[in-house]
Amino acid sequence: MMDKLTASVGTALDRFIAKRQEQFPYATGELSQLLRDIALASKIINREINRAGLSDLGGAAGTENIQGEQQQKLDMIADVRFTRALINGGETCGIVSEEVDDIIDTGNHHAKYIVTIDPLDGSSNIDVNVLVGTIFSIYRRRSPIGRPPTMDDMLQQGTEQVAAGYVLYGSSTMLVYSTGYGVNGFTYEPSLGEYFLSHANMQCKENGSIFSINEGGYNTFNEGLKEYIRRCKEREYSGRYIGSLVGDFHRNLLKGGIYIYPATSKYDTGKLRLLYECNALAFLAEQSGAMATDGKQRILEIKPTSLHQRSPFYVGSPKMVEEAMQCLEDYTEEEVEELETKTVQIRS
User: Which cofactor is recorded for it (predicted)?
Assistant: First the structure.
């Protein structure tokens, strides 16, 4: 009986980070501190989300971000909290945020790292009490130490990430991250104010039976994607789409599945942002044995050309992603044109 009452609560995030520090011979504690800064900000955001309904923090703020999207009040709060934590922590020289047009120069010009971040993914779901999250990537700077960050520091391929992760705010709050040595998940214990290791060495299943896509845009999908969705339905796969990227990705990581946000007539280059959404989740996907592509190439090998660049996104269990890619490849432009011509002839 006493053994149960005094059972260990597990490994705290700080201790876990400290133990893994030897994996980075080039670092002297800065990366570990940077991860702690992100964890601290996430605890504050968790508190704000939990009291949003009672503090009038839900709803739109009446402004738009660089993508022309309505900013929610909590978008702006989260952006301020994470930016402040990263500036005060002193370990990042520059930040790219979804909510800010340009590079954020932290003034910490001797810092070795830069951070790209979506402070609050899926924030419009706050009003209806649905999952939201934070997504982040960490890179080593390229410019000389002691100078302001440059665009070259920010526009790095996903292969150059030294760490990436997300925070999921839901029935329990989780921080999931990787430094290139597997993926580990930590669950927040609010009474102790600590994250504890709850999901060690997370692995995505090779195959799955969940497909996550907004089928409202089905008529705008290309024929290859329509074919893949038809196959999923013929197999009676479960269609699960929360509308929160972190939530959908997290479920499929644990249970096996594929998440798709394709190019459409409305978003011809996709909707999700490469630097602070796709790259981070692609890094985690590959570390867990999953795959991530834009429909043609590996996400992590795409060379960014702008801070808020968009990309189509196919991520999840490798067999499902590979089949989706094969469907896209099978329906070439010539085949689609031929199909459209036959359709017109039949109708006439």
Answer: Mg(2+)
